[in-house]
Amino acid sequence: MAPILRRLLPSEVPVLRRDPVDPAARDVAAPIVEAVKARGIDAVREYAEKFGELKPGEPLIYTRPELEQAWNKLEPATQRLLVRTVHRVRRFALVQKAAITDAKLDIPGGAAGHTVAPVENAGCYAPGGRYPLPSSIIMTVTTARVAGCTNVWAASPRPTQITLGAAFVAGADAVLAAGGAHAIAALAYGCGPIGPADAVVGPGNQYVTAAKSLIAGRVAIDMLAGPSECLVIADATACARVVAADLLAQAEHDPQALPSLVSTSAQLIDDVEVELVAQLAVLPTAGIAREACKNGYAVLVGSMDEAIAISDRLAPEHLELHTDDAEAVARRCKHYGGLFVGHAAAEVLGDYGAGPNHTLPTGGTARSTGGLSVFTFLRVRTWMSLSNLKTAADLVRDAHALAKIEGLHGHAVAAAHRLDTEDSQMLLEGFESAEGALTAHSAGVPQSALDGASISTDGGASTSGNMLLALPKKGRLAEMCLKFVEAAGLQYHRRDRLDVAHCTNLPITLVFLPAKDIASFIGMGNVDAGITGQDMVAEAGCTVTTELELGIGKCFLSLQVPERKKACSATDFAGCRIATSFPHLTRSFFAPIDKQLGVETKITDISGSVEAAVGLGLADAVVDLVETGTTMRAAGLCVAENLMQTQAVLISNPHTTHATLVNKIRQRFEGYLTSSKYSLMTYNIPRTLLSKAVLVTPGKRSPTVQQLDEDSWVAVSVMVETKQTSDVMDKLKELGATDILLLSLSNCRS
């Protein structure tokens, strides 16, 4: 009997795959796309009924309220499953989005840069042929929402209740109950309340791919995907049962899918064959999987180098590494859509929401493109502004010279008009040739000067050797910290959106970081000192020196439980699900309780909107910061127990080489704290009443007393707690003091 996977020599592995667009499918799709473009929703309904996706009178479009109705009909366990999956996909997309930011660079006479913005309207397709695929809805819609698209529409033929529910929790505005080429055209050109989209994404059959090829150029698309594929690289340490299961998981997608195995072990290949036979015998989708396996193959190679070379030639959609040194092998692989490293990292986990997107390039196109991601929905828009044409003169002359070289005289004239009248006239009269201009501009500039050039953090001074002071980059704490910096007399200029600024009056560089990262950076010695919360320091678990408590950002880290369970204590939630962005502190808090009760509390690490986790069914309670309690109460929660009280602190690395500067900053901050609590009061009083006046104004240590020209009177200067100044002034007046003045302090030294 022929093996399930045919055996090939390394030289026989087919490298070239067919075009992802089937010409016959394109011929079918073209008139459908044109019909939808011309007749809109009527044509979409006509094709949906023709292909059996709809019956006459059935809804073609499900609105947001209708999606919510479908969601409410799902079992709670199914709802929680979908919410968890959306959460993981969303977290990964958020990390991706954070990796690309706006940029700005000084240029002669002005500035240039780029901004990153989402497309406004996204169309997301999910197949619905053999099986409903709510996971594809989640992968596409969630990612578009994270990107920031204003409108997100989905399309899927014969959508089931779970597909509609997935669309709701992922954030779709509506679902079109249609598939194939007519659905893609509807998303691209508009269909009633849906579209037209600026980007159309999602996997589908050959007609979907053909339609996407027809609309590409009018709208952005993710890719032209063909049949799904999975390549497993394995050595003798691999588990044949697991490898076979992963290959069949790929094979059951589609009769045209391509499961393949490359191994350095002949025994493993034989064992996988035995497992394939056994598992196919009981697999409900064996018919489809068996057909797909006919497309696949198994290859015995002499070394891991040979296996990697085959993989890089194929650039497979999914690449699994079942090897003893999978991490090392992974670093050597260059071309793939999605990489799954190690025996445990099954492709199915990626398919169903580990975080990375499962919409990936096929047919070798992973050599030139990546999978669906938040970047698919983002646009990079460049900009330039000039405000000083005198400084920009060289830039203008170069543009003029290049335009003349290219024979674009209108361009040259447009450049010349940017100069002063005299210089402009010189260029317009051909005062210098293009070649001469280029030569003159570059003359006398040694290449070594260019080789050694560097871009400073603020357009001027270098940061080399400076003390690094970390500050929170955003939020209320960031605003309060800047007041300390200003009061400490640190002079700096922070350019827009740059996270580094150089002080001009002290050898200090300010580094703006997420508050949660500051303690770790200081503990590792990357930064000398910084401001963050005591909660962040405790969560990081690193060794730092607390220089000063700043008295700002005061709040509690609390266990928050549903209002209906306000009588419960922390013990009642041991063994339950706790969501938090402080997993270390939460684990430490519950550890002794868990040990006493013999249970294990499940701690889930999430970021942002932690208080919503209970309402979404992700957790039974949360551990989060409480300041005023407004957000907590709005989420229907109350405090069951406080883990710690926290405030902002100035911390430093114990081994910093800038201890003197750290101490200077501490003293200045301390002076600002004192000045914020005290005011300076001066008054005149008869010397005979001075002893009584001192009882009213004892000061921090003692008052300063000066003799007036009138021998029987003295002038007193003293620091008084600001909150007591009105009472003190009244008492002094009653005592006989005159000329009582109150002065505010901006800083001081005790």
From TrEMBL:
Localization per Swiss-Prot or TrEMBL = Cytoplasm
List, for all copies, the residue spans of the domain called ATP phosphoribosyltransferase catalytic.
Answer: 515-670
Q: Which reaction does it catalyse?
A: 1-(5-phospho-beta-D-ribosyl)-ATP + diphosphate = 5-phospho-alpha-D-ribose 1-diphosphate + ATP
> What pathway is this protein a component of?
Amino-acid biosynthesis; L-histidine biosynthesis; L-histidine from 5-phospho-alpha-D-ribose 1-diphosphate: step 1/9
Molecular-function GO terms, alphabetical: ATP binding; ATP phosphoribosyltransferase activity; histidinol dehydrogenase activity; magnesium ion binding; NAD binding
Q: Determine the domain of life of the protein's source.
A: Eukaryota
Q: Which Gene3D superfamilies match?
A: 1.20.5.1300, 3.30.70.120, Nitrogenase molybdenum iron protein domain, Periplasmic binding protein-like II
User: Which positions fall inside the Histidine biosynthesis HisG C-terminal domain?
Assistant: 677-747
Q: Which GO terms describe its biological process?
A: L-histidine biosynthetic process
Q: Give the CC-aspect GO terms.
A: cytosol
* Enzyme Commission numbers on file: 2.4.2.17
Q: Name one Pfam family in it.
A: HisG_C
Signal sequence, renumbered to the chain: none
**What's in the keyword line of the UniProt record?**
Amino-acid biosynthesis, ATP-binding, Cytoplasm, Glycosyltransferase, Histidine biosynthesis, Metal-binding, Nucleotide-binding, Oxidoreductase, Transferase, Zinc
Cofactor requirements of the protein: Zn(2+)
Q: Which family does it belong to?
A: Belongs to the histidinol dehydrogenase family.
Q: Which HAMAP family match?
A: HisG_Long (MF_00079)
Per its UniProt record, what NCBIfam families does this chain match? hisD (TIGR00069), hisG (TIGR00070), HisG_C-term (TIGR03455)
Put simply, this protein is called ATP phosphoribosyltransferase
**From which source organism is this entry?**
Diacronema lutheri
